[in-house]
Amino acid sequence: QGYSSAASDVYKRQVQEGEVTTTIRSGEVRIRMHRYGDEKKEKGWEDLEHILPGQKIMMITEIENLGENCLIRYQMTAEAKSNREIPISSFSGIPGNCVRKGEYFYHTDVVKHGETVRLFTAFTLPETWEQGGEDEIRIHVSADAIQSRNFTPDFTSEHPWGDQVIQKVSGKTGDQLRILTCLLYTSPSPRDMRRS
After folding, report:
1. Which of 123, 112, 126 is nearest to 29 (CA)?
2. What's the pTM value of the predicted model, to 2 decimals?
3. pLDDT value of position 184
4. Residue 186: its pLDDT value, please?
5. Residue 21's pLDDT is what?
6. How far is CA 191 from CA 18, 24, 91, 186, 195, in A?
7. Cα separation, 108 vs 69, whole angstroms
8. Which of 17, 38, 100, 167 is close enough to 43 for a disulfide, judged by CB 3.0 to 4.6 Å?
9. Measured between alpha carbons, how far is 106 from 58 in angstroms, rounded to an integer?
10. Residue-wise DSSP of 124-170
11. Which residues pair with 32 in a beta bridge?
12. Cβ–Cβ < 8 Å for 43, 36
């Protein structure tokens, strides 16, 4: 004789949830700016008392990569206390592997660990600059670095690095170094890993 019981037809269902940790790893990106007053790089840069229109001033400015392989972008400006305009063409010796997009010059080659790259070599006050009394000129240089691993800039875009976030800023008055990070690795989020 067979019999059936509601109790005998009970099934147990077990649901398991898994957890996954998302790992974001940022490499160490460290750069240092150097400025020299001569081609042999024996003389460190010193501020000048006087500069005349048309006078070329040696101002060799370089970035040294102390961290992981990275890409460099930089900008330089010259400002007169009198607010007279000083064009970007006043800077010379910009390397041929740099492209200008917006306010920045972008090195298109990866800068390897231990490598040094030039930003520019000289500054010349325009010859058309009128000498109407004393003026003060300030030159500002800032450089940004982003690790090159798993990052591909788009040099056809007006913003080759996209919307990268600045993580660290260091430098002295007139010079500024900024470190940006690029997402290297992510794993799926926990909600995508739930299973039953």
Report:
1. 112
2. 0.71
3. 35
4. 33
5. 52
6. 9, 17, 53, 14, 9
7. 13
8. 38
9. 22
10. E--TT----S---EEEEEEEEEEE-TT----TTSSSTT-SPPEEEEE
11. 64
12. yes
Q: How far apart are CA 80 and CA 132, in angstroms?
A: 13
Residue with tokens 């005349």: 52
Give the model's pLDDT for residue 22: 52
Sheet holding 56-65, edge to edge: 31-36, 56-65, 116-124, 91-92
- Of 172, 166, 101, 111, give the one whose Cα is nearest residue 140: 172
Q: Give every residue of the chain whose pLDDT is below 70, as ranges.
A: 1-27, 131-133, 168-196
pLDDT confidence of residue 19 = 55
Q: With beta carbons less than 8 A apart as the criterion, state whether 69 and 110 touch.
A: yes
Tokens of 127: 């010859």
Closest CA to 150 of 177, 181, 106, 179: 181
For residue 91, the cross-strand partners are 123
**Identity at 72, one-letter amino acid code:** I
Length of the chain: 196
Cα-based distances in Å from 182 to 28, 54, 106, 179: 11, 42, 16, 10
Q: Alpha carbon of 125 to those of 35, 104, 142, 154: distances in Å?
A: 18, 21, 20, 33
Spatial strand order of the sheet with 166-172 comes to 98-101, 104-107, 70-80, 137-147, 175-180, 166-172
The pLDDT of residue 193 is: 39
Q: What is the CA radius of gyration of the chain?
A: 28
